[in-house]
Design a protein that fits this description.
The complex is a heterodimer of chains A (317) and B (329). By secondary structure, chain A is mostly helical. Chain A is built from 13 helices and no strands. Chain A has helices spanning 2-32, 37-42, 48-58, 64-77, 90-125, 130-144, 147-161, 177-211, 214-221, 226-244, 246-264, 269-278, 282-310. The structure holds adenosine-5'-diphosphate (ADP), iron/sulfur cluster and magnesium ion.
């Protein structure tokens, strides 16, 4: 038991260290990036005196270390300054965009998991049948199709032609929960297809590997049927390595949502980043980059926790 | 002695590049009720395949012909569902590698109980009781706590005891032990062998004991079958075969055993290896490539398995190799 805590403590420490490094890197990158924020706000041919005054107001003239520490404080306290472009607190912008992206990500993950497990099991158990070969080819296609193209096709077919789903608008949850979910289904599908295909291929091969393990033969020699062995023994062992790529999947899905939000015109974090980059809205982009990276670290930590909970062997490092 | 298992003319073939390769050829033998029969031979001789055929667990691409009968019932033609009823209930198997034989993510007790429940319509509590009792029978202590352990926390010997418990919990008529102690330390080997002997007597189980160690055969088996490259080459009562081997291969196996007198001297091992399946010559004595007594007729056909007294021999030498050689006896 203490071993488990020690192990988790180590993981927690390394996660914290990663966060510090990420904040430092993000901060430094935005220092090196060309372009003076004050000039961006005032225009290139602004009065130098005015520029200087604004620089003071924004604190750009302070020493770098001091600004870093202040920024860190802001990150933790949720005060990220004003958006250069919208002149409202960055925090408010993020708060209004976050629910869209979170829902979209969760929905995509849900779709991924719902499809991945049965399809992988089918492919692994029906290796070499025509249906399995066809499905396998389909996953190959899924891996190679870019999500933005898929997003456009989905809009064309299901929104424009069939009118099954709305497009280009997002219905707030406060208005209608089903409506909101409906407006997110197509984008979520566009995001998850690629990930689903990758994970299916991965899980199928781990299932096939596991089926050749000795414990499977032992289980079969007890008189368990092939299917019982598959569901009671093989699947859990095969899903275990798949959990380690859960972190990678989430990162994938987050990245996908940035692109797909733009195609579907959804007011989420992805669109906020794109518009922030386009407008050189430094405080906002800087904060978003940090938060995205931090999310990845946190997710990987959670994956470690999950792994520890499932794999009894972890407790004896 | 009543006959329990009868294997007749069993051949197992794998599809090869040009033609099928027979990994087992015309294997015939019987195991009587309550008997411990040894199956020996070097690696690649087909011992495990023989065992897997009886279990109905041959690799998918393997094709078995002939007959395997357990208490008169033909196993080779059973459906998968029928085989599931036989496995673990009438025939059980112990494998060589205790380290990997158990599911790493399942409590060891549950793995034993699972064997019980797949052949008994039992409540969980009943299966647990049966499991705990079986765990005690295989010499494990603190069984209540042990029930909830995961395999990685157990030593190799304990794991093999768990596997033995799993194999015997349904009191099968036949236990096949495929090199059950090869992966274990010498002292643990002896403990596990003693345990097998004790349980086999207690439950009057028949045992087919697969090993490449003639010392184990001497200790455990009343009868021994020697295999080479997919063929049975010699069979007989252990004491006779070990004191008076008839087949050149058996003789070499015996000479390769380390003994007290030969300690310190270079270990005599058999030159060469069993040819890989694809490279085996057909239509000659299977041992001819390595036999130092081979003469012309040995290359004209596979010698038949003939009776010599109450023993069986697949060799063209008139009385087999009858030189005196008593290493063990
Ligand atoms: N799945 C398989 N495919 C092809 N050949 C196999 C397979 N399993 C076993 N064999 C071959 O059958 C022969 C006998 O194998 P095996 O019964 O495992 O030998 P033993 O247990 O005596 O060491 C070996 O030559 C081996 O290469
Ligand atoms: S038949 Fe010939 S080759 Fe085969 S074992 Fe006997 S003597 Fe050797
Ligand atoms: Mg073997």
């Amino acid at each position: 038991m203490t071993r488990t805590f020690l192990y988790l403590g180590k993981k927690l420490l390394s996660a914290l260290a990663a966060l510090v490094v990420i904040s430092l890197l993000t901060f430094l990158v935005f220092q090196i990036l060309p372009g003076n924020p004050a000039l961006i706000i005032l225009g290139v041919d602004a009065d130098p005196l005015q520029v200087e005054a604004l620089e003071q107001l924004m604190g750009i003239d302070k020493p770098m270390l001091q600004r870093y520490v202040e920024w860190l404080g802001g990150l933790v306290g949720g005060d990220l300054g004003l958006s250069l472009r919208y002149r409202v607190p960055v925090t408010d912008l993020i708060a209004s965009a976050l629910p869209v992206t979170v829902t979209l990500t969760l929905l995509s993950l849900l779709i991924t998991i719902i499809i991945v497990v049965p399809v992988s099991v089918y492919l692994a158990t029906h290796n070499n049948t025509i249906a399995a070969t066809f499905l396998s080819a389909l996953t190959q296609l899924g891996v190679s199709v870019p999500s933005f193209w898929l997003a456009i096709m989905l809009i064309l077919v299901f929104s424009v032609m069939l009118h099954w789903f709305p497009s280009g608008e997002v219905i707030p949850f406060s208005q209608s929960v089903t409506g909101a979910l409906r407006s997110l289904v197509l984008p979520a599908v566009a995001i998850s297809i690629g990930t689903t295909a990758v994970v299916i291929r991965y899980l199928k091969s781990t299932i096939l590997d596991e089926m050749h393990m000795d414990y499977v033969r032992t289980a079969r020699s007890k008189g368990l049927s092939r299917n019982t062995v598959l569901y009671r023994h093989v699947l859990k062992n095969a899903l275990l390595p798949a959990i380690t790529i859960l972190g990678m999947i989430t990162v994938d899905v987050l990245g996908g949502s940035i692109i797909v939000e733009n195609v579907f015109n959804l007011p989420g974090i992805g669109r906020l980043i794109t518009s922030g980059v386009g407008n050189r809205d430094f405080p906002m982009v800087q904060a978003l980059v940090f938060y995205l990276a931090a999310t990845v670290v946190v997710i990987n930590f959670l994956v470690d926790l999950l792994y520890t909970a499932i794999d009894p062997r972890i407790r004896l490092p | 002695m009543k006959e329990l298992l009868r294997i007749e003319e069993l051949s197992v073939a794998f599809p090869g590049q040009q033609q099928e390769a027979k990994a087992l050829d015309s294997v015939s033998f019987t195991v009587g009720e309550g008997e411990i029969v040894g199956l020996v031979g070097e690696s690649g001789c087909g011992k495990s395949l023989t065992a897997l055929t009886v279990m109905g667990l041959l690799p998918e691409k393997a094709r078995a012909t002939g007959s395997v009968r357990l208490e008169g019932r033909e196993l080779l033609t059973l459906s998968e569902t029928e085989l599931c009823d036989v496995r673990g209930s009438q025939v059980s198997m112990i494998f060589q590698e205790p380290m990997t034989a158990l599911n790493p993510l399942m409590r060891v007790g549950d793995q034993i109980a699972e064997a019980y429940r797949s052949h008994h319509n039992a409540f969980a509590s009943e299966a647990r009781q049966a499991t705990l009792e079986m765990m005690r029978s295989v010499g494990l202590s603190r069984v209540e706590a042990l029930y909830d352990e995961y395999p990685h926390r157990l030593s190799g010997g304990m794991k093999q005891r768990i596997v033995v418990a799993m194999a015997l919990i349904n009191r099968p008529a036949l236990l096949i032990a495929d090199e059950p102690t090869t992966a274990l330390d010498v002292t643990i080997q002896l403990q596990i062998l003693d345990l097998l002997r004790e349980l086999q007597a207690k439950f009057s189980t028949s045992v087919l004991l697969i090993t490449h160690n003639l010392g184990i055969v001497h200790k455990m088996c009343s009868r021994v079958i020697v295999m080479y490259a997919g063929y049975i080459v010699e069979e007989g009562a252990t004491s006779e075969v070990l004191s008076k081997p008839l087949h050149p291969y058996t003789r070499r196996l015996l000479a390769a055993i380390p003994t007290v007198e030969r300690q310190g001297k270079a270990l005599y091992s058999i030159p060469g290896i069993v040819a890989p399946l694809e490279e085996r010559q057909t239509g000659v004595c299977p041992f001819s490539q390595r036999c130092d007594r081979a003469f012309a007729p040995c290359f004209r056909g596979v010698p038949p398995l003939r009776e010599v007294g109450d023993r069986k021999l697949r060799c063209l030498l008139p009385g087999g190799e009858t030189d005196e050689l008593s290493i063990i006896a």
